[in-house]
Amino acid sequence: MILAIGLSLLVPLALSLLYGDGSWRSFLIPAAVMIPLGAAGMGATRITSRQAARYVLDRDVYLAVTLAWILAAVLGGFRSSSKEPLTASWTRPSRR
């Protein structure tokens, strides 16, 4: 899940670079953290043929999904917790 979210951040990263809006760091930093973490998590939890007969409890699955969503929220919210002001055009006050 973390890997998928990290990969999905590459789309707005590419669009931010294409339009030059200056917010590309807010997509690059979480993606750069999520993609390796997700790949490492997939490698660490890969089931081999010897382990296939081992039973996985429902509570283990619930715990894994809950922790993945918490990690995704923390890593995805990294940009909003930084000290830099947002520079996107929709955050600038209008001049009337």
Quick overview of this protein structure:
With 96 residues, the protein is mainly α.
Kindly report the average pLDDT value. 78
Question: Whole-number radius of gyration?
Answer: 18 Å
Based on secondary structure, the structural category is: mainly alpha
- The strand count comes to 0
- Please bin the fraction of helical residues: 55-70%
Largest sheet: none
Portion in strands: under 5%
What is the count of helical runs? Answer: 4
The backbone outline, from C-alpha atoms, is: elongated
The string of secondary-structure elements, in order, is HHHH
Q: In terms of per-residue confidence, which ranges show pLDDT below 50 for 5 or more consecutive residues?
A: none
What keywords describe this structure?
96 residues, mainly alpha, 4 helices, elongated
How is the secondary structure organized here?
Elements: H1 2-8, H2 10-19, H3 25-44, H4 58-76
Protein described:
Helix content is 58%, strand content 0%. By secondary structure, it is an all-alpha fold. The model has no long low-confidence stretch (mean pLDDT 78). The protein has a domain at 1-41. The protein contains four helices and no strands. Helix 1 packs antiparallel against helix 3. The protein has helices spanning 2-8, 10-19, 25-44, 58-76. The longest helix is centred in the middle third of the chain and has 20 residues, at 25-44.
